[in-house]
Amino acid sequence: MIQSIARGSLCFAFALALAGCVTSSPLGTAHVTILSDGRASVDGSKVEIAKLGRKLKSLGATPDTKIIVGVPSNTPKATLTGISRTLAVEGFTHVAFRTPVEATAAVSDGASKQPATPAPPIMPKSPKAQKPVRSETL
Question: Residue 70 is part of which domain span?
Answer without folding.
Answer: 24-98
